Amino acid sequence: MTHITLRIYGSLQDFLKPARSGAFTEVALQVRGPQNLKHVLEALGIPHPEVARILHGGKPVPWTALPQAGATYAVHPYRPGEAWPGPGPPRFVLDGHLGRLAAYLRLLGFDTRYDPQWDDGTLARYAGEEARFLLTRDQGLLKRGRVRFGYWVRHLRPQEQLQEVVHYLQLGRWAKPFTRCARCNTPLQDVPKAQVRDMVPAYVFRHHTRFRRCPGCGRVYWEGTHVTRLRALFRRVLQGERADSPRA
Ligand SMILES: [Zn+2]
Question: Is CATH 3.10.20.30 the right assignment for the domain spanning 2-77?
Answer without folding.
Answer: yes
